Amino acid sequence: MRFVKLDPPCAKASPAVRSVDPVPWTLEDILAELESIEKKLGSGASAPSPLKQPPEPQTPHPARAGRGDTPPRPESKPFVMCVSDDDDDGTDSDDDDDDGGGGRAGTRFSCADIDFSDSEDSEDEVYAKTPQSYMMSKKTLEEGILSELELEYQLKVKEQVRSKLSLLELQQKCERERMSSAMLQIQKYAEARREMDRKMDQQYQRKIAEVTDNHLSAVQREHEQRSLVEERRIRDDAALEEAKLKERARQEKAKAEAEARLKAAKRAEERK
């Protein structure tokens, strides 16, 4: 599908192009030119249809020119028109020759030779079908540029917000995984610590039992030794007391025998 795109006679208003273009233009100039074209076509005419390529103009025969034929109409002021070939791959060889450098050269057409009589669509339908641009709207060029910059800034901000949200979600996911791993490690460490404490408690209890047993055994041995020593002392004291008693009884018996012999000797002397 081919469509015709109207371009003003200079490039977009930028500092570089403005320095190159000797005759700068504004949006008001374009609107004024379009209004003049509408006035030429007539205010009561229907909306213009897409521009068509006019047929080749026929040059009048020299013989007929002398017989008072109508002279050719004077051409109106031409304007630059670019034909977009985005949807048509098979372009003409003439267009290929014109596109030798990186840009596409414009073709000049005369407004007087263009046919607008085949239009059947209403002005509203044509306006709805044609894409609205900032040039054809009532906004100024500065407002259009500001709108484009604002749209680009909004898209950039949205992209930055999306990237930041993605980064935050990724960081939150990594943080959750890290926290889960840390909690799992803490649980494993706590379980290992409890097992170690249980084993150490058993060892301590076993050691305490051994120490207590050794202490009780030592106390029992000491008590037995003291008991044996006390019993031996008691036996020695009893034996000594018994020996003393036996010696006293022997001494008393010897004394009694001596006194009895002495008395017997005295009686014998008295009988004599």
Key terms for this structure?
272 residues; mainly alpha; three-stranded antiparallel β-sheet; 6 helices; 3 strands; 62% helix; Protein GLE1 isoform X3; phospholipid binding; translation initiation factor binding
Q: Would you give an account of this structure?
A:
This is Protein GLE1 isoform X3. Keywords: Coiled coil. It is rod-shaped and about 215 Å long. It has a domain at 3-57 and 64-137. The protein is built from 6 helices and 3 strands; from the N terminus they run E-H-H-H-E-H-E-H-H. The longest helix has 131 residues, at 141-271. It has 272 residues and is mainly alpha-helical. Helix content is 62%, strand content 5%.
Could you give a short description of this structure?
With 272 residues, the chain is mostly helical. It has helices at residues 15-20, 27-41, 62-65, 93-98, 123-129, 141-271, and strands at residues 3-6, 79-84, 107-109. It has a domain at 3-57 and 64-137.
